[in-house]
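Subject: design request, 504 residues
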Protein backbone atom coordinates (compact mmCIF):
# COMPACT_ATOMS: atom_id res chain seq x y z
CA UNK A 1 0.00 0.00 0.00
CA UNK A 2 1.49 3.33 -1.03
CA UNK A 3 1.45 6.24 1.42
CA UNK A 4 2.99 8.79 -0.96
CA UNK A 5 0.79 11.78 -1.74
CA UNK A 6 0.94 15.37 -3.08
CA UNK A 7 -2.27 17.35 -2.69
CA UNK A 8 -4.56 15.16 -0.58
CA UNK A 9 -7.91 14.19 -2.06
CA UNK A 10 -11.07 14.68 -0.04
CA UNK A 11 -11.49 10.91 0.52
CA UNK A 12 -7.93 10.83 1.95
CA UNK A 13 -8.72 13.77 4.22
CA UNK A 14 -12.05 12.28 5.26
CA UNK A 15 -10.57 8.87 6.10
CA UNK A 16 -7.81 10.57 8.08
CA UNK A 17 -10.40 12.48 10.11
CA UNK A 18 -12.29 9.22 10.67
CA UNK A 19 -9.09 7.51 11.89
CA UNK A 20 -8.33 10.43 14.21
CA UNK A 21 -11.74 9.89 15.82
CA UNK A 22 -10.43 6.60 17.26
CA UNK A 23 -7.97 8.54 19.44
CA UNK A 24 -8.35 7.86 23.15
CA UNK A 25 -11.19 5.37 22.70
CA UNK A 26 -10.07 3.06 25.53
CA UNK A 27 -10.68 4.38 29.06
CA UNK A 28 -7.77 4.44 31.47
CA UNK A 29 -7.73 1.18 33.49
CA UNK A 30 -7.48 2.93 36.86
CA UNK A 31 -10.51 4.99 35.96
CA UNK A 32 -11.35 8.47 34.80
CA UNK A 33 -14.56 10.45 34.69
CA UNK A 34 -16.37 11.06 31.40
CA UNK A 35 -15.21 14.69 31.61
CA UNK A 36 -11.59 13.62 32.14
CA UNK A 37 -11.67 11.15 29.27
CA UNK A 38 -13.39 13.70 27.05
CA UNK A 39 -10.68 16.24 27.80
CA UNK A 40 -7.93 13.67 27.12
CA UNK A 41 -9.53 12.67 23.81
CA UNK A 42 -9.84 16.34 22.84
CA UNK A 43 -6.13 16.87 23.47
CA UNK A 44 -5.31 13.80 21.37
CA UNK A 45 -7.54 14.84 18.47
CA UNK A 46 -6.02 18.34 18.53
CA UNK A 47 -2.53 16.82 18.52
CA UNK A 48 -3.41 14.72 15.47
CA UNK A 49 -5.01 17.65 13.63
CA UNK A 50 -1.87 19.71 14.19
CA UNK A 51 0.37 17.03 12.60
CA UNK A 52 1.49 18.38 9.19
CA UNK A 53 2.51 14.97 7.80
CA UNK A 54 -1.09 13.71 7.74
CA UNK A 55 -3.52 14.17 4.85
CA UNK A 56 -5.29 16.75 7.01
CA UNK A 57 -2.08 18.82 6.81
CA UNK A 58 -2.55 20.92 9.95
CA UNK A 59 -5.45 22.67 8.21
CA UNK A 60 -8.22 21.67 10.58
CA UNK A 61 -8.96 22.75 14.16
CA UNK A 62 -11.17 21.11 16.76
CA UNK A 63 -14.21 23.18 17.74
CA UNK A 64 -16.37 20.64 19.64
CA UNK A 65 -16.10 17.07 20.92
CA UNK A 66 -18.51 15.00 22.98
CA UNK A 67 -18.46 11.49 24.42
CA UNK A 68 -21.44 9.41 25.48
CA UNK A 69 -21.50 8.46 29.20
CA UNK A 70 -20.96 4.77 28.38
CA UNK A 71 -18.07 5.51 25.96
CA UNK A 72 -20.01 3.77 23.18
CA UNK A 73 -20.11 6.78 20.89
CA UNK A 74 -18.04 9.88 20.24
CA UNK A 75 -18.25 12.69 17.72
CA UNK A 76 -16.26 15.81 16.98
CA UNK A 77 -16.60 18.94 14.87
CA UNK A 78 -13.58 20.40 13.11
CA UNK A 79 -13.23 23.53 10.99
CA UNK A 80 -11.00 24.40 8.05
CA UNK A 81 -11.46 28.13 7.65
CA UNK A 82 -9.15 28.43 4.64
CA UNK A 83 -11.42 26.16 2.58
CA UNK A 84 -14.64 27.24 4.34
CA UNK A 85 -15.29 23.64 5.29
CA UNK A 86 -16.45 21.84 8.41
CA UNK A 87 -16.29 18.17 9.32
CA UNK A 88 -18.68 16.27 11.55
CA UNK A 89 -16.81 13.06 12.40
CA UNK A 90 -18.37 10.01 14.06
CA UNK A 91 -16.22 7.43 15.84
CA UNK A 92 -16.33 3.77 14.88
CA UNK A 93 -16.83 0.84 17.20
CA UNK A 94 -14.52 0.22 20.16
CA UNK A 95 -15.35 -3.49 20.46
CA UNK A 96 -14.66 -6.38 18.11
CA UNK A 97 -16.25 -6.97 14.73
CA UNK A 98 -18.76 -9.58 15.91
CA UNK A 99 -19.90 -7.33 18.78
CA UNK A 100 -20.34 -4.45 16.34
CA UNK A 101 -22.65 -6.40 14.06
CA UNK A 102 -24.67 -7.87 16.92
CA UNK A 103 -25.03 -4.49 18.66
CA UNK A 104 -26.68 -2.93 15.60
CA UNK A 105 -29.94 -4.64 16.61
CA UNK A 106 -30.93 -5.33 13.01
CA UNK A 107 -33.67 -7.81 13.95
CA UNK A 108 -35.96 -4.87 14.80
CA UNK A 109 -36.60 -1.76 12.73
CA UNK A 110 -38.03 1.59 13.84
CA UNK A 111 -39.13 4.73 11.96
CA UNK A 112 -36.40 7.28 11.29
CA UNK A 113 -38.47 10.30 12.26
CA UNK A 114 -35.54 12.50 13.26
CA UNK A 115 -35.58 13.97 9.74
CA UNK A 116 -39.18 15.16 9.95
CA UNK A 117 -41.78 13.58 7.66
CA UNK A 118 -40.20 11.92 4.61
CA UNK A 119 -42.45 11.38 1.56
CA UNK A 120 -42.62 7.67 2.43
CA UNK A 121 -41.90 5.78 5.68
CA UNK A 122 -38.19 5.34 6.36
CA UNK A 123 -36.99 2.52 8.61
CA UNK A 124 -33.64 1.94 10.31
CA UNK A 125 -32.42 -0.73 12.71
CA UNK A 126 -33.29 -0.24 16.36
CA UNK A 127 -29.64 -0.52 17.38
CA UNK A 128 -28.51 2.12 14.88
CA UNK A 129 -31.33 4.42 16.02
CA UNK A 130 -30.24 4.07 19.65
CA UNK A 131 -26.65 4.97 18.75
CA UNK A 132 -27.87 7.89 16.61
CA UNK A 133 -29.93 9.20 19.53
CA UNK A 134 -26.87 9.11 21.77
CA UNK A 135 -24.82 11.06 19.23
CA UNK A 136 -27.29 13.88 18.64
CA UNK A 137 -28.12 14.33 22.34
CA UNK A 138 -24.66 14.08 23.94
CA UNK A 139 -23.15 17.39 24.96
CA UNK A 140 -19.87 19.14 25.65
CA UNK A 141 -20.19 22.06 28.02
CA UNK A 142 -23.97 21.82 27.61
CA UNK A 143 -23.72 22.17 23.81
CA UNK A 144 -25.09 19.55 21.40
CA UNK A 145 -23.71 18.79 17.93
CA UNK A 146 -26.41 20.87 16.21
CA UNK A 147 -25.78 23.83 18.49
CA UNK A 148 -22.02 23.58 17.97
CA UNK A 149 -22.41 23.42 14.19
CA UNK A 150 -24.84 26.37 14.24
CA UNK A 151 -22.31 28.44 16.19
CA UNK A 152 -19.52 27.47 13.76
CA UNK A 153 -21.62 28.27 10.68
CA UNK A 154 -22.62 31.65 12.12
CA UNK A 155 -19.02 32.81 11.68
CA UNK A 156 -18.46 31.17 8.30
CA UNK A 157 -18.16 32.75 4.88
CA UNK A 158 -20.96 32.16 2.38
CA UNK A 159 -21.47 28.71 0.83
CA UNK A 160 -19.69 26.55 3.42
CA UNK A 161 -19.52 22.77 3.04
CA UNK A 162 -20.21 20.40 5.94
CA UNK A 163 -18.60 16.97 5.47
CA UNK A 164 -20.20 14.19 7.55
CA UNK A 165 -17.70 11.36 7.96
CA UNK A 166 -17.32 8.00 9.67
CA UNK A 167 -15.52 4.66 9.58
CA UNK A 168 -17.20 1.39 10.63
CA UNK A 169 -20.08 2.13 13.05
CA UNK A 170 -19.16 5.78 12.61
CA UNK A 171 -19.92 5.42 8.90
CA UNK A 172 -23.25 3.75 9.64
CA UNK A 173 -24.16 6.65 11.94
CA UNK A 174 -22.94 9.22 9.41
CA UNK A 175 -25.64 8.05 6.98
CA UNK A 176 -28.21 9.01 9.64
CA UNK A 177 -26.56 12.13 11.05
CA UNK A 178 -26.02 13.70 7.61
CA UNK A 179 -29.72 13.75 6.59
CA UNK A 180 -30.62 14.80 10.12
CA UNK A 181 -28.35 17.84 9.80
CA UNK A 182 -29.78 18.58 6.35
CA UNK A 183 -33.25 18.68 7.90
CA UNK A 184 -32.26 21.45 10.35
CA UNK A 185 -32.87 25.14 9.77
CA UNK A 186 -29.62 27.10 9.74
CA UNK A 187 -29.70 30.80 10.44
CA UNK A 188 -27.88 33.23 8.15
CA UNK A 189 -26.08 30.70 5.97
CA UNK A 190 -27.15 27.57 4.11
CA UNK A 191 -24.40 24.96 3.98
CA UNK A 192 -23.85 22.29 1.38
CA UNK A 193 -23.51 18.78 2.81
CA UNK A 194 -21.21 15.94 1.79
CA UNK A 195 -21.31 12.36 3.08
CA UNK A 196 -18.25 10.08 3.21
CA UNK A 197 -18.37 6.61 4.78
CA UNK A 198 -15.66 3.96 5.07
CA UNK A 199 -16.09 0.27 6.03
CA UNK A 200 -19.67 0.99 7.08
CA UNK A 201 -22.38 -1.57 7.74
CA UNK A 202 -25.90 -0.50 6.79
CA UNK A 203 -28.34 1.43 8.96
CA UNK A 204 -31.61 0.86 7.11
CA UNK A 205 -33.55 -0.70 4.30
CA UNK A 206 -34.24 0.27 0.70
CA UNK A 207 -36.66 3.02 1.79
CA UNK A 208 -33.92 4.59 3.92
CA UNK A 209 -31.43 4.37 1.05
CA UNK A 210 -33.89 5.89 -1.41
CA UNK A 211 -34.51 8.78 0.96
CA UNK A 212 -30.82 9.46 1.69
CA UNK A 213 -29.84 9.28 -1.97
CA UNK A 214 -32.67 11.62 -2.96
CA UNK A 215 -31.23 14.50 -0.93
CA UNK A 216 -28.95 17.13 -2.39
CA UNK A 217 -25.29 16.30 -1.74
CA UNK A 218 -22.00 17.91 -2.63
CA UNK A 219 -20.75 14.30 -2.43
CA UNK A 220 -22.31 11.03 -1.29
CA UNK A 221 -19.58 8.40 -1.38
CA UNK A 222 -19.12 5.01 0.21
CA UNK A 223 -15.70 3.31 0.36
CA UNK A 224 -15.17 -0.34 1.27
CA UNK A 225 -12.36 -2.88 1.15
CA UNK A 226 -13.20 -5.91 -1.00
CA UNK A 227 -11.86 -8.18 1.80
CA UNK A 228 -13.68 -6.46 4.69
CA UNK A 229 -16.61 -8.42 6.13
CA UNK A 230 -18.29 -5.50 7.95
CA UNK A 231 -19.58 -3.51 4.93
CA UNK A 232 -20.99 -6.79 3.58
CA UNK A 233 -23.64 -6.51 6.30
CA UNK A 234 -26.38 -7.09 5.63
CA UNK A 235 -26.45 -7.69 1.89
CA UNK A 236 -23.74 -10.23 1.03
CA UNK A 237 -22.26 -11.69 4.22
CA UNK A 238 -22.39 -15.21 2.82
CA UNK A 239 -19.74 -14.23 0.26
CA UNK A 240 -17.22 -14.18 3.11
CA UNK A 241 -17.58 -17.93 3.53
CA UNK A 242 -15.39 -18.24 0.41
CA UNK A 243 -12.61 -16.10 1.92
CA UNK A 244 -9.63 -15.75 2.22
CA UNK A 245 -7.54 -16.71 -0.84
CA UNK A 246 -5.23 -19.62 -0.11
CA UNK A 247 -2.37 -19.20 -0.06
CA UNK A 248 -1.90 -17.31 2.21
CA UNK A 249 -5.35 -17.72 3.84
CA UNK A 250 -6.96 -18.01 6.31
CA UNK A 251 -9.65 -20.10 4.69
CA UNK A 252 -13.02 -20.21 6.41
CA UNK A 253 -13.47 -23.44 8.35
CA UNK A 254 -16.78 -24.83 9.60
CA UNK A 255 -16.67 -22.70 12.76
CA UNK A 256 -16.22 -19.55 10.67
CA UNK A 257 -19.07 -20.52 8.36
CA UNK A 258 -21.32 -21.19 11.37
CA UNK A 259 -20.57 -17.75 12.85
CA UNK A 260 -21.22 -16.03 9.51
CA UNK A 261 -24.49 -17.95 9.12
CA UNK A 262 -25.58 -16.86 12.60
CA UNK A 263 -24.69 -13.21 11.96
CA UNK A 264 -26.36 -13.23 8.55
CA UNK A 265 -29.58 -14.45 10.19
CA UNK A 266 -29.77 -11.52 12.64
CA UNK A 267 -31.89 -9.23 10.39
CA UNK A 268 -34.70 -11.80 10.20
CA UNK A 269 -37.28 -10.68 7.60
CA UNK A 270 -35.83 -7.17 7.23
CA UNK A 271 -33.92 -6.23 4.09
CA UNK A 272 -30.99 -3.81 4.27
CA UNK A 273 -29.19 -1.74 1.66
CA UNK A 274 -26.37 0.80 1.39
CA UNK A 275 -26.71 4.49 0.45
CA UNK A 276 -24.10 6.41 -1.49
CA UNK A 277 -21.99 5.87 -4.59
CA UNK A 278 -19.99 2.65 -4.00
CA UNK A 279 -16.20 2.78 -4.31
CA UNK A 280 -14.68 -0.68 -3.85
CA UNK A 281 -11.04 -0.75 -2.80
CA UNK A 282 -9.05 -3.71 -4.14
CA UNK A 283 -5.91 -4.55 -2.15
CA UNK A 284 -3.35 -6.96 -3.52
CA UNK A 285 -4.13 -9.84 -1.19
CA UNK A 286 -0.75 -11.43 -1.79
CA UNK A 287 0.84 -8.54 0.12
CA UNK A 288 -1.90 -6.55 1.87
CA UNK A 289 -2.92 -8.91 4.65
CA UNK A 290 -2.06 -9.73 8.26
CA UNK A 291 0.83 -12.16 7.82
CA UNK A 292 0.23 -13.69 11.27
CA UNK A 293 -3.50 -14.41 10.93
CA UNK A 294 -3.36 -17.05 8.20
CA UNK A 295 -4.28 -20.38 9.81
CA UNK A 296 -7.59 -22.07 9.18
CA UNK A 297 -9.17 -21.15 12.53
CA UNK A 298 -11.98 -18.91 13.70
CA UNK A 299 -9.47 -16.85 15.68
CA UNK A 300 -7.26 -16.19 12.67
CA UNK A 301 -10.19 -15.56 10.32
CA UNK A 302 -11.68 -12.92 12.62
CA UNK A 303 -8.20 -11.50 13.20
CA UNK A 304 -7.80 -11.11 9.44
CA UNK A 305 -11.22 -9.48 9.24
CA UNK A 306 -10.15 -7.02 11.94
CA UNK A 307 -6.99 -6.19 9.95
CA UNK A 308 -8.90 -5.69 6.70
CA UNK A 309 -11.42 -3.49 8.56
CA UNK A 310 -8.88 -1.38 10.44
CA UNK A 311 -8.29 2.35 10.02
CA UNK A 312 -4.61 1.94 8.93
CA UNK A 313 -5.64 -0.52 6.20
CA UNK A 314 -8.16 1.92 4.74
CA UNK A 315 -5.68 4.80 4.93
CA UNK A 316 -3.13 2.67 3.07
CA UNK A 317 -5.63 1.63 0.41
CA UNK A 318 -6.45 5.29 -0.18
CA UNK A 319 -2.76 6.25 -0.33
CA UNK A 320 -2.87 8.37 2.83
CA UNK A 321 -0.32 8.35 5.69
CA UNK A 322 -1.31 6.59 8.89
CA UNK A 323 -2.25 8.73 11.88
CA UNK A 324 -0.02 9.04 14.95
CA UNK A 325 0.27 5.81 16.95
CA UNK A 326 -0.96 5.44 20.49
CA UNK A 327 1.18 3.91 23.24
CA UNK A 328 2.35 0.30 22.94
CA UNK A 329 3.90 -1.77 25.73
CA UNK A 330 6.37 -4.35 24.45
CA UNK A 331 7.75 -5.73 27.74
CA UNK A 332 8.61 -4.87 31.33
CA UNK A 333 12.07 -5.29 32.84
CA UNK A 334 10.78 -7.57 35.57
CA UNK A 335 7.60 -9.63 35.55
CA UNK A 336 7.69 -10.31 39.28
CA UNK A 337 8.21 -8.16 42.36
CA UNK A 338 6.42 -6.30 45.12
CA UNK A 339 5.08 -2.83 45.80
CA UNK A 340 7.94 -0.37 45.39
CA UNK A 341 9.93 -2.54 42.96
CA UNK A 342 11.66 -0.54 40.23
CA UNK A 343 10.30 -1.46 36.79
CA UNK A 344 11.23 -0.18 33.35
CA UNK A 345 8.52 -0.39 30.69
CA UNK A 346 9.74 -0.75 27.10
CA UNK A 347 7.60 0.17 24.13
CA UNK A 348 6.72 3.13 21.95
CA UNK A 349 4.46 6.16 21.75
CA UNK A 350 5.07 7.26 25.33
CA UNK A 351 4.32 10.95 24.82
CA UNK A 352 2.10 13.73 26.10
CA UNK A 353 0.00 12.93 29.16
CA UNK A 354 1.74 9.60 29.90
CA UNK A 355 0.23 7.68 32.81
CA UNK A 356 0.88 4.10 33.93
CA UNK A 357 -1.46 1.60 35.58
CA UNK A 358 -0.67 -1.76 37.15
CA UNK A 359 -4.05 -3.40 36.75
CA UNK A 360 -6.46 -0.80 38.06
CA UNK A 361 -3.92 0.92 40.34
CA UNK A 362 -2.11 4.04 39.06
CA UNK A 363 1.64 4.58 39.35
CA UNK A 364 2.97 7.78 40.83
CA UNK A 365 5.44 10.00 38.96
CA UNK A 366 6.36 7.91 35.88
CA UNK A 367 9.59 9.07 34.21
CA UNK A 368 9.51 8.93 30.39
CA UNK A 369 12.70 8.67 28.35
CA UNK A 370 13.48 11.44 25.89
CA UNK A 371 12.76 9.24 22.86
CA UNK A 372 9.42 8.01 24.24
CA UNK A 373 10.40 4.33 24.25
CA UNK A 374 10.85 3.66 27.99
CA UNK A 375 9.16 4.56 31.27
CA UNK A 376 10.67 4.12 34.74
CA UNK A 377 8.18 3.52 37.55
CA UNK A 378 7.88 2.04 41.03
CA UNK A 379 5.26 -0.70 41.23
CA UNK A 380 2.23 0.56 43.17
CA UNK A 381 0.52 -1.51 45.90
CA UNK A 382 -1.23 -4.54 44.47
CA UNK A 383 -1.81 -8.28 44.50
CA UNK A 384 -2.01 -11.13 42.03
CA UNK A 385 -1.07 -10.87 38.35
CA UNK A 386 -1.85 -7.59 36.60
CA UNK A 387 -1.41 -6.04 33.18
CA UNK A 388 0.92 -3.04 32.93
CA UNK A 389 -0.67 -0.50 30.60
CA UNK A 390 0.22 3.02 29.48
CA UNK A 391 -2.24 5.81 28.71
CA UNK A 392 -1.49 9.00 26.76
CA UNK A 393 -3.60 11.58 24.95
CA UNK A 394 -3.60 9.15 22.01
CA UNK A 395 -5.11 6.22 23.88
CA UNK A 396 -4.36 3.28 26.17
CA UNK A 397 -2.02 0.43 25.27
CA UNK A 398 -3.53 -3.06 25.00
CA UNK A 399 -2.60 -5.70 27.56
CA UNK A 400 0.22 -7.94 26.27
CA UNK A 401 1.72 -11.20 27.61
CA UNK A 402 5.16 -9.65 28.25
CA UNK A 403 3.56 -6.72 30.04
CA UNK A 404 2.35 -8.76 33.02
CA UNK A 405 3.54 -8.16 36.58
CA UNK A 406 3.14 -10.78 39.33
CA UNK A 407 3.12 -9.53 42.92
CA UNK A 408 5.19 -11.96 44.97
CA UNK A 409 5.71 -14.39 42.08
CA UNK A 410 6.07 -16.78 40.48
CA UNK A 411 6.67 -15.12 37.13
CA UNK A 412 4.08 -15.53 34.33
CA UNK A 413 4.53 -18.21 31.67
CA UNK A 414 4.51 -17.12 28.02
CA UNK A 415 5.07 -19.01 24.73
CA UNK A 416 7.06 -17.13 22.10
CA UNK A 417 7.09 -19.76 19.36
CA UNK A 418 6.75 -23.42 18.36
CA UNK A 419 8.73 -25.35 15.75
CA UNK A 420 7.44 -26.95 13.66
CA UNK A 421 3.96 -25.46 13.79
CA UNK A 422 2.40 -28.37 11.95
CA UNK A 423 2.78 -32.15 11.99
CA UNK A 424 1.18 -35.40 13.06
CA UNK A 425 0.70 -37.44 16.21
CA UNK A 426 4.05 -38.46 17.67
CA UNK A 427 6.06 -35.62 16.11
CA UNK A 428 8.45 -33.72 18.39
CA UNK A 429 7.68 -30.03 18.78
CA UNK A 430 10.10 -27.51 20.29
CA UNK A 431 8.36 -24.82 22.34
CA UNK A 432 10.19 -21.63 23.31
CA UNK A 433 9.08 -19.06 25.83
CA UNK A 434 9.81 -17.77 29.30
CA UNK A 435 9.49 -19.14 32.83
CA UNK A 436 8.97 -22.82 31.99
CA UNK A 437 9.84 -24.82 35.10
CA UNK A 438 10.41 -28.51 35.83
CA UNK A 439 6.69 -29.10 36.45
CA UNK A 440 5.76 -27.96 32.92
CA UNK A 441 2.90 -29.76 31.17
CA UNK A 442 2.00 -29.20 27.54
CA UNK A 443 -1.45 -29.39 25.95
CA UNK A 444 -2.33 -29.54 22.26
CA UNK A 445 -5.87 -28.23 22.34
CA UNK A 446 -7.42 -30.16 25.24
CA UNK A 447 -5.10 -33.17 24.95
CA UNK A 448 -1.94 -33.49 27.08
CA UNK A 449 1.38 -34.31 25.49
CA UNK A 450 2.52 -37.83 26.49
CA UNK A 451 6.15 -36.70 26.73
CA UNK A 452 7.63 -33.35 27.80
CA UNK A 453 11.36 -32.74 28.11
CA UNK A 454 12.80 -29.52 29.55
CA UNK A 455 15.79 -28.33 27.51
CA UNK A 456 16.33 -24.97 29.17
CA UNK A 457 14.74 -23.01 32.04
CA UNK A 458 14.78 -19.31 32.82
CA UNK A 459 14.54 -16.73 30.05
CA UNK A 460 14.38 -17.90 27.40
CA UNK A 461 12.95 -21.30 28.26
CA UNK A 462 12.72 -24.25 25.91
CA UNK A 463 11.09 -27.66 26.03
CA UNK A 464 10.33 -30.48 23.62
CA UNK A 465 6.86 -32.06 23.60
CA UNK A 466 5.42 -34.97 21.66
CA UNK A 467 2.22 -34.16 19.76
CA UNK A 468 -0.62 -36.29 21.19
CA UNK A 469 -3.62 -37.72 19.35
CA UNK A 470 -5.72 -34.91 17.87
CA UNK A 471 -9.32 -34.57 18.97
CA UNK A 472 -11.41 -35.39 15.94
CA UNK A 473 -15.08 -35.08 15.13
CA UNK A 474 -17.64 -32.46 14.10
CA UNK A 475 -16.57 -28.94 15.00
CA UNK A 476 -13.05 -30.00 15.98
CA UNK A 477 -10.46 -27.96 14.06
CA UNK A 478 -7.20 -29.24 12.62
CA UNK A 479 -5.42 -26.22 14.15
CA UNK A 480 -5.23 -26.14 17.95
CA UNK A 481 -3.72 -23.92 20.63
CA UNK A 482 -0.61 -25.21 22.34
CA UNK A 483 -0.45 -24.21 26.00
CA UNK A 484 2.13 -24.72 28.71
CA UNK A 485 0.99 -25.17 32.31
CA UNK A 486 3.74 -24.41 34.82
CA UNK A 487 3.80 -23.12 38.42
CA UNK A 488 0.04 -22.57 38.28
CA UNK A 489 0.14 -20.50 35.09
CA UNK A 490 -1.40 -21.45 31.77
CA UNK A 491 0.33 -19.62 28.93
CA UNK A 492 -1.81 -17.17 26.90
CA UNK A 493 -2.95 -18.47 23.54
CA UNK A 494 -2.41 -16.71 20.22
CA UNK A 495 -1.16 -17.14 16.66
CA UNK A 496 2.42 -17.88 17.80
CA UNK A 497 1.25 -20.95 19.72
CA UNK A 498 -0.98 -22.60 17.12
CA UNK A 499 -0.25 -26.10 15.83
CA UNK A 500 -1.90 -27.63 12.76
CA UNK A 501 -2.41 -31.37 12.51
CA UNK A 502 -1.68 -32.64 9.02
CA UNK A 503 -4.22 -35.02 7.57
CA UNK A 504 -3.11 -38.63 7.21
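Subject: RE: design request

Done. Sequence follows.
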Amino acid sequence: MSTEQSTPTMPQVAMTLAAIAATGATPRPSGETVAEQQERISLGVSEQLAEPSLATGNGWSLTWLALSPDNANMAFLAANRSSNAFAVVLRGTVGNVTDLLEDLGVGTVVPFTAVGSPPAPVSVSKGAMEAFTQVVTMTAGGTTLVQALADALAGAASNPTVHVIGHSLGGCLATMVAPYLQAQTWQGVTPKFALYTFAAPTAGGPDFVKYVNSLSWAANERYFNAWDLVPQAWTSLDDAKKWYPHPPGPEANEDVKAVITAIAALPGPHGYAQPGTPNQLHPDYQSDYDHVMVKKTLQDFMGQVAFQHANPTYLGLLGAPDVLSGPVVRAVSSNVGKAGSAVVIAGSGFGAGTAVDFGTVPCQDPVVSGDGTAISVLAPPGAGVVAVRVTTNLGTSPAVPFGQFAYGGPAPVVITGIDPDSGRKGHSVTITGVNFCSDAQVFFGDNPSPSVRIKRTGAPSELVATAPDPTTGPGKPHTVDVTVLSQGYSSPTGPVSEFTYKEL
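The chain has three domains: 10-228+273-288+310-317, 328-407, 414-501.
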